[in-house]
Amino acid sequence: MPSSHPRYSVRDTLFLVWSEHVTTPEDILVRRTSLATSGTLNLRAIQDVVAVMADELKWSNADRDKALSHTVAILMEKRGQSTKRLVERVSE
After folding, report:
1. Per residue in 13-38, pLDDT tens?
2. Which pTM was predicted?
3. Measured between alpha carbons, how far is 9 from 3 in angstroms, rounded to an integer?
4. Is the model's pLDDT at 87 over the cut of 60?
């Protein structure tokens, strides 16, 4: 699965999961990369990070869905991102 963000690849996500022991998507998006603060984060990129982590860490579909919902909620609450804006960036 290719990454939908031009600055970060699937390999980047896997590196963070295994070398930095990252267990949550928001840790990657908010703390370990500049994605959340760059103004380029979109819903597709969030979904990609969640999907890579879910596959690698053997999450169930329910855990994958919960991680996606929680990550979007965190971004909305703590970073002032709106779901509408995250979706709009997908088409930019």
Report:
1. 999 999 999 999 999 988 888 877 77
2. 0.80
3. 5
4. no
Distances in Å between the Cα of 14 and the Cα atoms of 28, 34, 54 are: 10, 16, 11
CA atoms within 13 A on the CB side of 83: 8
Q: How far apart are CA 79 and CA 92, in angstroms?
A: 20
Determine the Cα–Cα distance for residues 83 and 80; give it in Å rounded to an integer. Answer: 10
Three-state SS annotation for the chain: CCCCCCCCCHHHHHHHHHHCCCCCHHHHHHHHCCHHHHCCCCHHHHHHHHHHHHHHHCCCHHHHHHHHHHHHHHHHHHHCCCHHHHHHHHCC
Q: Give the length of the chain.
A: 92
Instruction: Return the amino acid letter for 20.
Output: E
Q: What is the rounded distance in angstroms from the CA atom of residue 67 to the CA atom of residue 54?
A: 9
At 10, the amino acid letter reads V
